[in-house]
Fold this protein.
Amino acid sequence: MTIEELKQFAVAMGEKPFRGKQIFIWLNRGVQSFEEMTDLPKALREKLEGCAQIGGCRAIQVQEDETDGTRKILFESQAGETDTFEGVFMKYNYGNSLCVSSQVGCRMGCRFCASGLSGLVRNLTAGEMLGQVLEAERVTGEKVGHIVIMGMGEPFDNYENVAQFLRLLHDEDGRNMSWRNMTVSTCGIIPMIGQFAEDFPQVNLAVSLHRLTDEGRSEIMPINRRYPVDQLLDAAREYTEKTHRRITFEYALIEGENDSDEDVGRIIRKLGGMLCHVNLIPLNKVDETGYDGTSRQRAREIAGSLEAAGIPATVRRQLGSRIDGACGQLRWQAEAGN
Ligand code: SAH
């Protein structure tokens, strides 16, 4: 709940609104029981125990990649659900970042991605997304200063909950996180891009492109049949005009599929002149998909060609690949049976 909702909740319980604010502050510090909210009267704590629930999540497993400090965390919901989801804690020179899941599973069906292998199970709530951040800090003992919604799921397929999560993060009585430290990544649900520009003009937007012809993109990303790539690029241009913010295009490099000189020429023709940045991600191999990643050397070569054509490009650092924590690899392994 937002601070306003908690104030109303307090009032509905016959309490003063400021009790709602106190509860909000405690929840955003990551307490896991009402008992710990020591500035509330004991009677109120007991009443809360009886009628309310802290709907976040608990870390039930942590895997560390010791070479780079990346940790993949398996969460269990505290909101009465039995399923699990994952987040990835990463260390960058600008600070620590958490890759947050927005859904359990995904219904977008991108052919190269592990998250959608068995479809969508359910949307995560704002509390479960915030819980990932709080729990990641608890189990790592470190601060999370940035979040990227690039874990399991399609955030624009769960827009209301994602929007609430971003607002909670930003609240000055909560984590007071700057909008600019948040990034949302979408596979290209066009109507939501306009909505997002309207609602969150300062939050970073990343769009997964991966291919620039309709035929090729539809083959690996079924969403392209509904929202074709040229229309997506138009929406991206509108976004940058409206927000004056640079948009990030993610381009997963798949060996022999989208990494030829012809593909690079197409990126240059289609993205040239846009306020954008291209993030090249050598595909992380997911066995079931049959696709493999382009070599880092070729990826660097492609980045060089884009840069030479005036398109800012970087090759994404590959954190956590040893623990299957890299992009698109998130999946509850027990469920997948391996
Ligand atoms: N649904 C959102 C966020 C998901 S994941 C989206 O599609 O943008 C973040 C990024 O990882 C996306 O660009 C996604 O296409 C990419 N990705 C998925 N599987 C991958 C894999 N196996 N290797 C590399 N990147 C992958």
